[in-house]
Amino acid sequence: xxxxxxxHVIHLxxxxxxxxxPAIMAAPDEPNAYARTARYxxxxxxxxxEDDAQEAYDDFVIAYPYDPDTATPEQTREWVDRFDEEVWxxxxxxxxxxxxx
Length: 101
Fold this sequence. Notes:
The chain is α+β, with helices and mostly antiparallel strands. It has helices at residues 30-48, 51-63, 73-86, and strands at residues 5-13, 23-27, 91-99.
């Protein structure tokens, strides 16, 4: 008998006023889910933020430095939560899902 596997699904919804499509990603566990989310948010900020929003992001990364190579899972989660509050407002959901073989 095989056992079920759990994955963490990340859903980012930018809202109805945004031109961004919702993003759905998966990771094997919660720390990797938040790390993937942080990488995605950093990439989106570099590519899509303009003017005032870019200035807010620049101020944010000075106030809340984040190095994906050295950050602990707790630091990564805090960075994602603060990004959501202070820079851009996607609805970020990370949920554990059981997958049957």
